[in-house]
Amino acid sequence: MTREEAQNTWEKIVDLGFTDYNKLNRQQRVWFNVEPLTTEGLWDHYMNHGADKNADTIADLEYLNFNSVANQLREFNKIYFPNGVPEGPDARQEQFDKFDEDELEDVIEEMDDKFWKVSDELENTLMEHINNSGIGK
Q1: Which of 21, 6, 12, 31 is nearest to 122 (CA)?
Q2: Is residue 47 within 8 Å of 89, Cβ to Cβ?
Q3: Within 13 Å of residue 32, how many CA atoms lie on the same side as its CB?
Q4: Contact 119, 40 (CB under 8 A)
Q5: Tens digits of per-residue pLDDT, 28-55?
Q6: DSSP state of 84
Q7: Ordered DSSP codes for 5-60
Q8: What is the end-to-end Cα distance of the chain in Å, rounded?
Q9: Which of 63, 99, 103, 127 is the most exposed place for a label (fewest CB within 10 A)?
Q10: How far, in Å, CA of 124 to CA of 120, rounded?
């Protein structure tokens, strides 16, 4: 199954994820949390609502055996969110504003550069997950 063939199912999972996240089963949750990374990257994860489920996203990356990406998120969290990832993009932006903008931009660029080198592999693994679990049908 291709991403295009799974689009209708993806839209249903997104709707469920935003209306009642806890009703997603594990297979759906992995898709819900990892798909945005494959299209938008790690920085977008923090600037939008993806990081509201940061701990689950890390667990889902590990479930797919992408520990390197999970560790990138963990390391970023240790530096910028030592007390936990705040809920909501505005709260995260407030935390980012406490740091030197140039240094933060350098860290973000390095983080995303490292991520994009493995993003195609992550996307392929996610598609295998969707196909092997049957959730895309």
Answers
A1: 31
A2: yes
A3: 26
A4: no
A5: 999 999 999 999 999 999 999 999 999 9
A6: -
A7: TTHHHHHHHHHHHHHHGGGS-HHHHHHHHHHHHHHH-HHHHHHSGGGGGHHHHHHH
A8: 8
A9: 103
A10: 6
